[in-house]
Design brief:
Layout: H1 2-20, H2 22-25, H3 30-33, E1 39-45, E2 88-94, H4 95-105, E3 119-130, H5 140-154, E4 173-183, E5 185-193, H6 200-220, E6 223-231, E7 235-238, H7 240-245, H8 254-268, E8 275-282, H9 289-303, E9 309-315, H10 324-331, E10 338-343, H11 349-357
Parallel strand pairs: 5-6, 5-8, 8-9, 9-10
Antiparallel strand pairs: 1-2, 3-4, 6-7
């Protein structure tokens, strides 16, 4: 019990440290590479993992007195350092815990699913016992009781030597049945401009923003899918790896991505069964004013009516005009499903995430 309390206290300290530096953690690209099976290793300065310590601090050896033959010595000459080191401890935090911290600090309300229907998934539930089954599912307590009752009835049970011998007929096994579990399903459609004006710096901002978008939405939905669309003057669906690393040098026609997304939703994700989230990342450069107006028409007539939310994130670029966000504000000023944000640098990701999800959509 004492160890459990100490561990819980340590987890609270870790979460406190993450909260203190949340804005910094949101911008740390190395976290994305640390993701395992829904677990992330986070380096945190200034805390130490609880552990047992043995002995005392008066041992001899290199660095604290005369050494002995066989002691390991460091490389290089000169005296050892005299300043205190910066202790860095790597702790494992689940993505759900990170998402909860994100939601608490940004004061994000939990999302209310919009889908009219719910897709069901199959789940095995252990609900009874039976006399056949694998040994791994043997119900020990029931098996013991049956064997004890049998030996008492047969008169072979000896209270002075209470030895219970199981027979095949005594054994009971846990049984299960497959049940249908309703789950709110969601799809995230990521769209990104990969034209020549979107460089590595802009793609890193997109990658960080999309990581936290994904973490928050997965915390709110049981079943979720992600689809990826890239575009220059033409658009096409790609896998996740290609989405973050593809580099083109052509022009930009944003409407091509919106048409591709429209076809994707029509073919695979009916709005009455899916909660639909769409995010478009661009530097705001587009081929023409006419195409920007076409984008607004596609949004108003086809995409926004189907979406829980359409998020447009404009990242700063020295080569982009940055005008598309102004076109959206001018032509679609009262669309509640559309949320826009500007990300000029990594520090803006914190405010961008809050802008997207502060309404609980």
């Amino acid at each position: 019990m004492k160890i459990h309390k100490d561990h819980q206290r340590f987890r609270q300290i870790v979460k406190g440290k993450i909260r203190e530096d949340l804005r910094k953690f949101l911008t740390r690209g190395e976290l994305l590479g640390r993701e395992g099976k829904r677990i992330i290793s986070i380096p945190i300065r200034g805390i130490q993992t609880p552990h047992f310590r043995y002995g005392d601090n008066n041992d001899g050896g290199v660095g604290s007195g005369e050494g002995k033959p066989g002691d390991q010595v460091g490389e290089g000459d000169g005296p050892g350092g005299t300043e205190e080191g910066r202790h860095i401890t790597e702790v494992e935090v689940s993505l759900d815990e990170l998402a909860d911290i994100l939601g608490e600090e940004l004061q994000l309300p939990r999302i209310k699913p919009r889908g009219k229907q719910r897709i069901t998934s199959e789940k095995d539930r252990y609900s009874g016992v039976r006399q056949t089954g694998p040994e791994s599912l043997r119900h020990f307590r029931r098996t013991f009781r049956r064997a004890l009752r049998r030996q008492i009835i047969a008169g072979t049970y000896n209270p002075d030597d209470p030895r219970i011998v199981f027979e095949r007929r005594d054994k009971m096994y846990r049984s299960w049945k497959t049940v249908l579990k309703p789950q709110s399903n969601a799809v995230i459609v990521y769209m990104m401009d990969v034209s020549g004006s979107m460089g590595d710096e802009q793609k890193e901002l997109v990658r960080l923003e999309a990581f936290w978008i994904d973490a928050w939405l997965r915390r709110n939905y049981e079943g979720i899918e992600s689809r990826y669309i890239v575009h220059d003057v033409r658009a096409g669906e790609v896998d996740r790896e290609t989405f973050y690393h593809l580099r083109e040098d052509g022009g930009t026609r944003i409407s091509s991505a919106f048409r591709c997304a429209k076809a994707l939703l029509e073919n695979s994700y009916p709005a009455d069964e899916w909660n639909i989230y769409m995010f478009h990342f661009s530097d705001g450069d587009n081929s023409s004013e006419a195409d920007s107006r076409e984008c607004c028409k596609l949004l108003k007539e086809n995409l926004l009516p189907q979406c829980n939310m359409f998020g447009y994130c404009q990242v700063a670029s020295a080569y982009g005009s940055g005008n598309f966000i102004n076109v959206l504000h001018e032509h679609l000023p009262d669309e509640e499903e559309m949320v826009t944000s500007r990300v000029n640098g990594k520090d803006d990701i914190y405010d961008s995430i809050k802008a997207f999800f502060s309404k609980g959509k």
